[in-house]
């Protein structure tokens, strides 16, 4: 196992648009329709377009097959499609699904079951701008999150013209049909725009090469580092015929788990026993419908392992629907175990500081409008999206999706410069003003997950805790690409005085002809990022490179 870990195979999973980003931005800002629809899913840059069958498109994103799955889990309509095949007909996804998530390897997510009472394409005044609003920090506020307002520091990226309350945007009833790329129609558009305003959706199969990773059966084990680097696709992943044991999350060891579900920006390390008949097995990764990301699409790679002396060209590809753990929409088949990422306790028992935090910040996630202006229009150092945190302090960040938000979808929240303890999450608004007021059934202070990316659930709340022991200007943001663009981010400036002392030593060294001193200061810079006094954007860019 240790040898497998040292030789772990990286799998960078991404979603891929055939259109360039500036074209997508323009269409998004013009129509207000979220750019959820990608053309393919890739592993290390390898992948292909695989069109869904007409039966799956007609079934919709839930695939409408709960009863079929219950009666016959190996029905052709309930198994994930085969991967690399010489036959174009094998490229067609005659697959379907309808439960939760993947493999003897996968995970669960909660999605609001409330449904919309109106047609999303006929709604007038559906303009959007993603923002995060914060109450002014008070030492352990006397009001609860449910009673709080969002009048503190606005985090919108551009001016808003109107707000249309939309409390159930993400909880739409299942749409009956999917477009050619497996996408449901947009959930909201600007007034005067609709599905007909968007480029026509088309799908054409391609035969591009799939990623193939090779191991030898005699190794006994193979390890993988999986990363979801996608823009809009939450992914489930599985390996046909094999259990995947999760041993690390976001770069830190955890108690072993079976299963795997990757939100945006999340990383998992898994190990697999090479205990099956040597051959080629499909690694599957599928997007599962969630919030605004309503697309059924699957990508694949190949794990090839053979006995000593066997030629890869002579290896057969195992294509048995009975060996697949997940369905084409990323949900698990009934015989698969699912990862509960709340059980990913740190391996070394790293528990959060107990008791009351030194600082508590409340974030209301609120989408109000599509931005009209792009760019950094304010002095970042004094912007409302810049917060200052004292050094060596315990900080609680309480987040919730505001009831008046036009879109109540969930958000993968990522903090640069730190790991944090994920203390808990739930539906609605966090009903307490601080962590210490919450019961242990709601907040885990004993062995919570310790990582840097975690989902805020749809129409729900989440609480994280971290310690400000790394001076710097750290970005805290939603990992959905398009929500970053429209302003869902803040900069947490940590221990500003220590940062200034670091800047002073670097400036002094830069003015000194002693290059040894300069080298020493630059070495410190790799540990403590500095900043420009004039524009906080420099901090963000530097933090991104150093993160």
UniProtKB/TrEMBL annotation:
GO MF term (any one): copper ion binding
Transmembrane spans: 525-546
Pfam annotation, one family: Cu-oxidase
Low complexity: bias regions: 107-133, 141-173
Organism of this sequence: Endocarpon pusillum (strain Z07020 / HMAS-L-300199)
The protein, known as: Plastocyanin-like domain-containing protein
Entry keyword set: Glycoprotein, Membrane, Metal-binding, Oxidoreductase, Signal, Transmembrane, Transmembrane helix
Region (Disordered): 107-173
Family: Belongs to the multicopper oxidase family.
Domain Plastocyanin-like positions: 224-306, 376-497
InterPro entries noted in UniProt: Cu-oxidase_2nd (IPR001117), Cu-oxidase_C (IPR011706), Cu-oxidase_fam (IPR045087), Cu_oxidase_CS (IPR033138), Cupredoxin (IPR008972)
């Amino acid at each position: 196992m240790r040898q497998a870990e040292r030789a772990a195979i990286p799998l960078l999973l991404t979603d891929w648009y055939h259109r360039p980003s500036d074209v997508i931005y323009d269409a998004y800002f013009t129509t207000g329709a979220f750019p959820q629809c990608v053309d393919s899913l890739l592993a290390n840059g390898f992948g292909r377009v695989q069109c869904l069958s007409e039966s799956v498109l007609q079934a919709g994103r839930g695939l409408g097959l709960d009863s079929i799955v219950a009666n016959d889990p190996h029905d052709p309509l309930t198994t994930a499609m085969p991967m690399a095949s010489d036959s174009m007909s094998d490229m067609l996804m005659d697959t379907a699904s309808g439960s939760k998530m993947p493999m003897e390897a996968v995970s669960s997510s909660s999605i609001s079951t409330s449904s919309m009472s109106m047609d999303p394409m006929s709604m007038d005044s559906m303009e959007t701008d993603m923002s995060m609003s914060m109450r002014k920090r008070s030492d352990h506020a006397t009001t609860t999150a449910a009673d709080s307002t969002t009048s503190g520091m606005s985090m919108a990226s551009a001016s808003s013209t109107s707000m249309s309350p939309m409390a159930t945007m993400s909880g739409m009833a299942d749409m009956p049909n999917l477009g050619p790329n497996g996408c449901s129609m947009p959930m909201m558009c600007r007034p005067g725009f609709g599905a007909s305003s968007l480029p026509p959706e088309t799908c054409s199969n391609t035969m591009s090469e799939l990623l193939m990773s090779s191991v030898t059966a005699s190794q006994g084990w193979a390890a993988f580092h999986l990363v979801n680097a996608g823009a809009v696709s939450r992914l489930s992943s599985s390996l046909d015929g094999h259990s995947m044991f999760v041993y690390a999350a976001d770069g830190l060891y955890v108690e072993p788990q079976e299963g795997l579900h990757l939100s945006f920006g999340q990383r998992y390390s898994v190990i697999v026993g090479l205990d099956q008949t040597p051959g080629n097995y499909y690694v599957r990764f599928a997007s599962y419908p969630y919030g605004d990301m309503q697309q059924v699409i699957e990508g694949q790679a190949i794990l090839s392992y053979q006995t000593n002396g066997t030629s890869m060209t002579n290896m057969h590809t195992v294509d048995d629907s009975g060996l697949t753990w997940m369905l084409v929409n990323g949900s698990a088949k009934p015989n698969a175990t699912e990862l509960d990422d709340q059980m990913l306790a740190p391996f070394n028992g790293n528990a959060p500081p107990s008791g009351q935090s030194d600082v508590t910040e409340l974030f209301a996630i609120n989408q109000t409008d599509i931005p009209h202006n792009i760019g950094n229009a304010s002095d970042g150092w004094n912007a409302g999206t810049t917060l200052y945190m004292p050094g060596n302090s315990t900080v609680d960040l309480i987040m919730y999706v505001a009831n008046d938000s036009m879109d109540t979808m969930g958000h993968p929240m990522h903090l640069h410069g730190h790991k944090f303890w994920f203390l808990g999450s739930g539906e609605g608004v966090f009903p307490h003003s601080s962590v210490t007021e919450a019961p242990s059934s709601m907040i885990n202070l004993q062995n919570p997950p310790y990582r840097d990316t975690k989902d805020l659930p749809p129409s729900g709340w989440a609480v994280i805790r971290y310690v400000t022991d790394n001076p710097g200007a750290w970005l805290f943001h939603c990992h959905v690409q398009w929500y970053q663009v429209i302003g869902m981010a803040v900069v947490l400036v940590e221990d500003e005085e220590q940062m200034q002392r670091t800047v002073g030593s670097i400036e002094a060294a830069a003015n000194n002809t002693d290059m040894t001193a300069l080298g020493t200061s630059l070495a410190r810079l790799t540990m403590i990022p500095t900043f420009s006094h004039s524009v906080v954007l420099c901090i963000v860019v530097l933090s991104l490179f150093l993160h």
